From TrEMBL, chain A:
Entry keyword annotation includes Transport: yes
Name of the protein: AP-2 complex subunit alpha
GO function term, MF aspect, one: clathrin adaptor activity
Residues in Clathrin adaptor alpha/beta/gamma-adaptin appendage Ig-like subdomain domain copies: 708-797
Function: Adaptins are components of the adaptor complexes which link clathrin to receptors in coated vesicles. Clathrin-associated protein complexes are believed to interact with the cytoplasmic tails of membrane proteins, leading to their selection and concentration.
TrEMBL record, chain B:
Protein transport keyword on record: yes
Name listed for the protein in its UniProt record: AP complex mu/sigma subunit domain-containing protein
Subcellular location per the Swiss-Prot or TrEMBL entry: Cytoplasmic vesicle membrane; Golgi apparatus
Coiled-coil regions listed: none
Membrane topology: Peripheral membrane protein
Residue intervals passing through the bilayer: none
Any Gene Ontology CC annotation: cytoplasmic vesicle membrane
Predominant location: membrane
GO biological-process terms attached to the record: Golgi to vacuole transport; intracellular protein transport
Family: Belongs to the adaptor complexes small subunit family.
Keywords per UniProt: Cytoplasmic vesicle, Golgi apparatus, Membrane, Protein transport, Transport
Domain of life according to the entry: Eukaryota
Length: 916, 190
């Protein structure tokens, strides 16, 4: 017997023993640090170390590394060892490199140089070391500089077998890391013919190489099929004595057989009839051998035999052409399902999964259903149970769906946490796919939520809602079942969500029963409200507004909840907003608005469902959002440039509500700006936004925003939607303005490609106002969402009046100037109806905020306002005089403005008119 | 392809680690720890395959392991390898170690890290199975030993003599080493 014990390196042995005798972690670290310091000083010292010493220290470093300490030196010494003539020193050098030096290291150049030298060495054992190192590091750099020699080495007749064997795998490794570096075109046929090599080791390594090459370029290597089949046939039919050393526990060359069978799985069944027959014979022989009594009782024997068998079965499944073989394979696997070896049961379940997908063997697999279910229940190993779940999923079809889903649901109650989520998804998919009776489907999903609510993802419960909405026949049943499920003392939040949604839509279908009268439904849902997350609460609030429509009789109780302090002043902005909006909506809107609203929700959800059929992730929340949007449509000018999908949505949605709102009242609920319920302004003040979410599905309308709000103040929010908030902070002094635009990211993601662009009209740059109305800057911004560029045009509220400076003067001076500006075009007079209550204090604030002074004691009527201001531009200053006379009986105002420039009078008149 | 070969003992102390794909050193140690946690909590009579930990690539990779007395031998492989084949490969590896060290035990792996690496590199290279014929492997190891002895005979002798002189009390030291009672793994489970 050869032994490697008892040679060399005492120092290493002592060091290792020291470490092992350390009583504590600290002592060990201390000892290691001492040793590291010692080695470092030895390496740095003047004395040149001999090869033996270097080898010893490198070994120590390796050991320290294995203990989990970082090694930050010694690399250079290891590289030096490579150039030694001694095999042992070279060997340890290469070992260090392949364990501790990454492909990106600076030392790689030196290493490659050593490899180059060793590759041309006469000594095959040096060549092998170099090849080993290349295979272990396998960097591009290596492939580039020395990879070119490998194919020659591999196919040359002069190379000895052991080098060929290693060269094959080295080439494979380099092909993997940088395939384009070594073109193999001219070597193809010679590489394929390695399959015929005498030496089995060479064939094994060549098979691995060819299999990798075939995956990239199947046509070029097509001729390997017949060679592989004949090789396989020779192995399979050989008696085990023929292969001498490659027989492993009485199985002839099991690794090579596995490799060859894998290789054949890259091609369809051979076209050549003789090759095909030969392959079929091989496979039959392998299946037959499985039935023979074992030649040895050792587990290694059966392992090796079964490794080949499983691979043969995989090939049979892959070819999927011979029903006879497929059924035999299935029966064989069936035997394994009850084998005492856990490994075999595991593999049998896994292979059967593949078999179940073949039409020839699907029925045969189904015969084993009971065994698999037993495995699911009794198997001790979770990985095996998981395979059983996979197989049940694969073998499920319409005929056995109900049973399998039932079994899986039952198992789910006790299943390991690690596989629950996957199981939930599988059950949901099976239930939907094979549902004949949708009441069964609803039951299954609700059971899922009940049993494993935490693992039910949004996709699953969105889907059940979609299906219920689209199938009139289950709506009543769903409402009833969900109502019953909600009565459980503790129910999962997902159940509340589904319940909230379904009752909101179809609660009327069960309202006839006094046990589930509207009020009972509402109270049941509301009893869960306080236990839920804000998200769910929002959904429940939407349900309540739907209830107002469905059951007008409980409107008062719902309004009471919506109006409760807890809700109206909720710290969660979304909830607060919903409550205020819904409350407002329920008071201002007549029943037909609500009906329209309700229909829209349904309509949207249906179209969503249709659009999203393929992708079951349609978001119910998306539906939620949309339900609010249509309200704003009548006031927005829609210039939808988006093609296809969104358009029909928008048309079908926009019209009905448009009419009903217009008829009812001017209902302007600015969704995100709830604090201001302003009456509508002339439409040119409205901008609107069209945002694309997932180009084909989501479109998003948000109304904007009233610049006019900035007429009388300097700071505020200019724009806001779900993604972004834009705020303005401005300062004005004479003709100078400083406007800060603040962008706030409201999402949790980072914006990419966020740019903003400011376009200034000439008048601002030159300091002259030429345009009559407002001086408006346009601010463009672009950002990216879901891979889609979005562009947003906004006007900045920089208007002419911002450059007004209040001026003080006495009565005499005022009237002198007033009279001096008596030309007709210098005066602008407007008479208009009040839009706001004529509260003196508020009007005063607005006048001041607009930039005008308030002069006392000029007009004898205290209700009238007299103001003056100077408008600063860079070149000139323009005086303005303003008189505002409210008439409280008529609720009218008379506004008179005089200034030296006619256009200023007009511009200020237009702006001020809108404010009172 | 084999992504990593790890050997550690029942307490998770690594005895051999070989990665065929580059990982930074700290990640390597984390992978060993993670793998130990995954493997050590399993009973002895469950199956020898399980899905890989998150660090090594998750469910695309499989851990195939065997437990011999005090040591776990774990191979992390992708889907292109036959599970039973790898299990046999572990067996070949251990049998080869057993023949080279004569009744191999954990201590042999500790004191001869380099040798273990050489033996492994005759079996697996760059993540691919190189040689499975035990006779062939042992022949090659023997050749190496012969070379080593020759080289040691020529030039290393003085160095060894010097170091022996320096550490006169080593034999005593070695006797003092407390060897835990390790069952020889070679005798088990073959």
């Amino acid at each position: 017997m050869p032994t490697v014990k008892g040679d060399g390196m005492r120092g290493l042995a002592v060091f290792i023993s020291d470490i092992r005798n350390c009583k504590s972690k600290e002592a060990e670290i201390k000892r290691i640090n001492k040793e590291l310091a010692n080695i470092r000083s030895k390496f740095k010292g003047d004395k040149t170390l001999d090869g033996y010493q270097k080898k010893k220290y490198v070994c120590k470093l390796l050991f320290i590394f294995l203990l989990g300490h970082d090694i930050d030196f010694g690399h250079m010494e290891a590289v030096n060892l490579l150039s030694s003539n001694k095999y042992t020193e070279k060997q340890i050098g290469y070992l260090f490199i392949s364990v501790l030096v990454g492909a990106s290291s600076d030392l790689m150049k030196l290493v490659i140089q050593s490899i180059k030298n060793d590759l041309v060495s006469r000594n095959p054992i040096h060549i092998n070391l170099a090849l080993h190192c290349m295979a272990n590091v396998g960097s591009r750099e290596m492939a580039d500089s020395v990879g070119g020699d490998i194919p020659k080495l591999l196919t040359s007749g002069e190379t000895i077998d052991s080098v060929k064997q290693i060269a094959g795998l080295t080439l494979l490794r380099l092909q993997r890391s940088s395939p384009e570096m070594i073109p193999l075109g001219e070597w193809t046929s010679r590489i394929i013919h390695l399959l015929n090599d005498q030496h089995m080791g060479v064939v094994t390594s060549a098979t691995s190489l060819i299999e990798a090459l075939v995956r990239k370029n199947p046509d070029e290597y097509k001729s390997c099929v017949s060679l592989a089949v004949s090789r396989l046939s020779r192995i399979v039919t050989a008696s085990y004595t023929d292969l001498q050393d490659y027989t492993y526990y009485f199985v002839p060359a099991p690794w090579l057989s596995v490799k060859l069978l894998r290789l054949l799985q890259n091609y369809p069944p051979p076209e050549d009839p003789s090759v095909r027959t030969r392959l079929t014979e091989c496979l039959e022989t392998i299946l037959n051998k499985a039935q023979e009594p074992p030649k040895s009782k050792k587990v290694q024997h059966s392992n090796a035999k079964n490794a080949v068998l499983f691979e043969a079965i995989n090939l049979i499944i892959h070819m999927d052409s011979d029903p006879n073989l497929l059924v035999r394979a299935c029966n064989q696997l069936g035997q394994f399902l009850q084998h005492k070896e856990t490994n075999l049961r595991y593999l049998a379940l896994e292979s059967m999964c593949l078999l179940a997908t073949s039409e020839f063997s699907h029925e045969a697999v189904k015969k084993h259903q009971d065994t698999v279910i037993t495995a699911l229940k009794t198997e001790r190993d979770v990985s095996v149970r998981q395979r059983a779940v996979d197989l049940l999923y694969a073998m499920c079809d319409r005929s056995n769906a109900e049973e399998i889903v039932g079994e899986m649901l039952e198992y789910l109650e006790s299943a390991d946490y690690s596989i629950r989520e996957e199981m939930v998804l599988k059950v949901a998919i099976l239930a939907e796919k094979y549902a004949v009776d949708y009441t069964w489907y609803v039951d299954v999903i609700l059971n899922l939520i009940r049993i494993a609510g935490d693992y039910v993802s949004e996709e699953v419960w969105y889907r059940v809602i979609q299906i219920v909405i689209n199938r009139d026949d289950v709506q009543g049943y769903a409402a009833k079942t969900v109502f019953e499920a909600l009565q459980a003392p503790a129910c999962h939040e997902n159940m509340v969500k589904v319940g909230g949604y379904i009752l909101g839509e179809f609660g009327n279908l069960i309202a006839g029963d006094p046990r589930s009268s509207p009020l009972v439904q509402f109270q049941l849902l509301h009893s869960k409200y306080h236990l839920c997350s804000p998200n769910t609460r929002g959904l429940l609030l939407s349900t309540y507004i739907k209830f107002i429509n469905l059951f007008p009789e409980i409107k008062a109780s719902i309004q009471e909840i919506l109006g409760s302090d807890n809700n109206l002043r909720n710290p969660d902005v979304e909830l607060q907003q919903r409550c205020i909006e819904y409350l407002q909506l329920s008071t201002v809107a007549s029943p037909d608005v609500l009906v329209g609203l309700h229909n829209i929700t349904l309509l949207l959800f249906r179209s969503l469902a249709k659009l999203k059929k393929k992708k079951p992730t349609a978001t119910a929340e998306g539906g939620e959002e949309k339900e609010k949007e249509p309200r704003t449509i009548p006031q927005a000018q829609v210039n939808n440039a988006e093609p296809s999908a969104p358009v029909p949505l928008q048309v079908s949605v926009g019209l009905p509500i448009g009419r009903s709102t217009a008829r009812n009242r001017r209902l302007s609920v600015n969704l995100k700006m709830i604090c201001s319920l302003m009456p509508p302004l002339p439409s040119f003040f409205f901008f609107f936004f069209l945002m694309k979410f997932e180009a084909y599905l989501f479109f998003y309308l948000t109304i904007i925003f009233l610049i006019s709000r900035f007429f009388c103040k300097q700071n505020g929010v200019l724009f806001e939607n779900d993604l972004l908030q834009i705020g303005i902070k401005a300062e004005y002094r004479q003709n100078l303005a400083r406007v800060g635009v603040f962008f706030g990211n409201k999402t949790t993601f980072q914006f990419t490609n966020f740019t903003s662009n400011l376009v200034l009209p000439d008048s601002i740059k030159s300091g002259m106002y030429k345009n009559r109305g407002c001086i408006l800057c346009k601010c463009f911004k672009i950002w990216c969402q879901s891979g889609q560029m979005q562009k947003l045009n906004l006007k900045l509220p920089v208007i002419i009046s911002k450059f007004l400076e209040p001026a003080e003067m006495n009565s005499e001076a005022f009237f002198t100037r007033w009279k001096a500006l008596s030309q007709p075009d210098q005066e602008c007079q407007k008479i208009f109806k009040a839009q706001f209550p004529q509260d003196t204090e508020q009007v005063k604030q607005k006048v001041l905020g607009f930039g005008l002074s308030i002069l006392q004691g000029i007009d004898p009527n205290p209700d009238n306002f007299v103001s003056s201001a100077i408008l600063h531009t860079r070149n000139q200053q323009v005086g303005c005089l303003v008189r505002l006379e409210p008439n409280k009986q008529m609720q009218m105002y008379r506004l008179t403005i005089r200034s030296t420039k006619p256009e200023i009078s007009k511009a200020l008149g237009d702006l001020l008119e809108t404010q009172f | 392809m084999i992504k990593a070969i790890l050997v550690f003992n029942n307490h998770g102390k690594p005895r051999l680690s070989k990665f065929y794909q580059y990982y930074p050193e700290d990640i390597q140690h984390q992978i060993i720890r993670e793998t130990f946690h995954l493997v050590s909590k399993r009973d002895d009579n469950v199956c020898n395959f399980l899905e890989g930990g998150t660090l090594i690539g998750g469910s695309d990779y499989r851990l195939i392991y065997r437990h011999y007395a005090t040591l776990y031998f774990v191979f992390c492989v992708d889907s292109s390898e036959s599970e039973l084949g790898i299990l046999d490969l572990i067996q070949v590896f251990v049998e080869t170690l057993d023949k080279c060290f004569e009744n191999v035990c954990e201590l042999d792996l500790i004191f001869h890290v380099d040798k273990v690496h050489y033996i492994l590199s005759e079996l697996v290279m760059g993540g691919m199975v190189l040689e499975t014929n035990m006779t062939e492997i042992i022949t090659r190891i023997e050749e190496q030993n012969k070379l080593e002895k020759q080289e040691a005979g020529i030039s290393a002798a003085p160095a060894r003599a010097v170091s022996a002189m320096k550490e006169m009390n080593i034999p005593q030291k070695i006797k003092d080493i407390k060897l835990p009672d390790l069952p020889s793994i070679g005798n088990l489970k073959f």
